[in-house]
Amino acid sequence: MANDDNNNHDGPAVSDEEWARFMEQARTGAGEAPQEPSARARMVTARLRAESAEPAGWRTGPAWQEMQGRGRRKRRLKAAAAVVFIAALALIAVRPELVIDRVTGKAAREEKAREPLPAETARPSAPPSAVDPDRPTLTEPFKGSPALQWADGAAGIELPQAQAVGGMSQEQVADALEKAKQFLVSANLDPATLRGERPAAALELLDPKLKDELDRLEGTLTAPTKENDPLHLFTRVKPAELKPAGDVVKVRGRMWVEPGKEAGQVSVLADYTFVYPFVKAKPGADEVARSIVRREVTFSTADPRKWQATAGKLWLERYNVNLANSACDVYDGYLHPTFADDARTGPAPSGTPVDPYDRSKGIDSGEPEGCGTLSRT
């Protein structure tokens, strides 16, 4: 060790008394260290203390006094660096994921996964890329989901530029687009609708001349069945069973316009996916489960001067829905997502796993019937 000291030209950064006091603090844990670190922190701290124990011959060497003056600044810098290094190791002991994420590249991927996507203007050619399969939490309910990059709520329902189509003026088309958005917001994002209340704002947008259709929709809300389920158009849960995990619903999709079946008619087509994070409505519940609802809805409107239609109202031409992570055999008009601690009931999911975030094909294109299997939520 004497030869090592001569080669390195190192000496003590401080006096013998200060060094001894520093080592005693490291050995006993005195100072500003937390009084009750985690078990992992205690193990790493113990190892650091053992490694910092003064080795034999640490201060031996014939030129120790001579080198003290010229090496003082250098030794002080080294001592400061050592303190920073020990502090960094202590932080790693408490939060090792900070280093692990950097080493594995996960931190960079998570940062990229949070970058908002541009608006969807055409059907994508492929499903979203895989992301780190992290479990959602109450503070990060979309963690581990492609929806992390999607827009929040109504901001995700962006309207195309209105143009005159099918004998309808630009103003009439713009009004139809705005009314279609209002319907989707009321049916899928309105807190009152989500907690099971009557979606009054959405129903008010439909043409009262379609009395039979309106009566049928009202019936689905009061007496739902498998064939007449309000979930076909409206997203609802039971407040006694579930509550939202946060106040954000993620939305991704597009809306476009086509000429109607006859002159003086225009069709507004909407294809949107809504991602809902839920937690059980019981004290202490912290597990988050996501349900993914994709809707394809075709609205139409007509010029009241040519057709028996009410100005500013919508007709429902067609609608399809895909419900991901909801009980397969329950038709009470509410979503029932599955949580990890739920007992298995009903039919077991089967078939090739389906990605509920895949918007590259329509709902009718190979979607499973019955109780399918999901590749992720």
Automatic annotation (TrEMBL):
Biased composition (Basic and acidic residues): 105-117
Transmembrane segments: 77-94
Region (Disordered): 1-70, 105-146, 341-377
Source species, domain of life: Bacteria
Annotated keywords: Membrane, Transmembrane, Transmembrane helix
Protein name per its UniProtKB record: Uncharacterized protein
Provenance organism: Streptomyces roseus
